[in-house]
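Why do we care about 3D structure at all? Because function follows from shape, and shape follows, mostly, from sequence. That is the central idea of this module. The next example makes it concrete: a single protein chain, its amino acid sequence, and then its structure expressed as tokens.
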Amino acid sequence: MITQEFLGKICDIKTGKLDVNAESPDGKYPFFTCAETPVKIDFYDYDCECVLIAGNGELAVNYYKGKFNAYQRTYIVTAKDKFKDETYLPYLYPILKRAILDLKSQSQGSIIQYLRLPQLEALEIPFPKPDEQKRIAAILDKADRLRRQRRFAQTLSDSFLQSVFIKMFGDPMSNPMNWDKATLDSQLKNIDSGVSPVCEEFSRKKNEWAVLKLSSVTSGRFLPDENKVLPSNIKPVLNYEVKESDVLFTRKNTEDLIAACALVYDTPQKLLLPDTIFRFKLKDNCDVKAEFLWGLFNERKFRRTVQSFATGSAGSMPNISKEKLNSLQILTPPLPLQKKFAAIVQKFERVRRQQREATRQAEHLFQTLLHRAFRGEL
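And the structure:
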């Protein structure tokens, strides 16, 4: 029988020290923030084998061995000296991924979830002998590699589209092609947001209404399955239903995740806009295509500029106002060129539908094995 141990008993847990703005795009070392994928930084403060857990945002979990740095809200989990010979961290990594899924429903904060140190220390995890840990880790690693390969294929698609955008339109900040500019509000019917009632975390059934979570947008791709079920006693406001061609924008989030933008391709069923996400509705005869606007807001330098618009009092999440967005200057290249870019995006979206299904299957396999491992049945 596999014993259970508290994470705080077998592991030391501490947080990073850096602000998220310490990132250096051309840096040598990984910098773990609240995003699932680490960014880069010029220097390191840690050189060890560990599991890293984001304390807010998407609550991402990573395994790493070597030199790195970490955001001040990222937890660094290492084996205590007296448990080092008994703890195989590549086993602990997937087990903690499963445990964090369970913690999400208990975490504090109605808009975005936070993990506190006592919550992590009190986690009970299955703790078999080292040889058994290695066997389980090998099985889970194969499933996780398949899942990561599927995700990587999607990331490559995004990188390709960003490269195409720069090649066709140039750097939107320096505007080397001297495109005309206009304020964002001159191109929009309106910017609106919805409401965020207290929703349920259980699986959504057919024909149920649901409210989008921030994670439906933060990757830069629209993820309709990232939602919470609307309680049956709350009547949906139909004006907030998300429609095809909507451009969605995270107006309120952590510093590294704010100002994410996603384009809705298919017509989603019964999904509502929360108050943390803006929706850009283009005018009928405007000078920009939805695909171009999506590409512009996802361009790294432009997004950093938009993120700088965020304000917030101490202890609150950064927030970007409609007024600042309305006054934002955007490029307005010739529509035929934008339509050419839109056609490329649409072709890639068809490929990504297939990628998403392959990713879904790989994710289901991994989660099934992970559930069995967490229950001591693998």
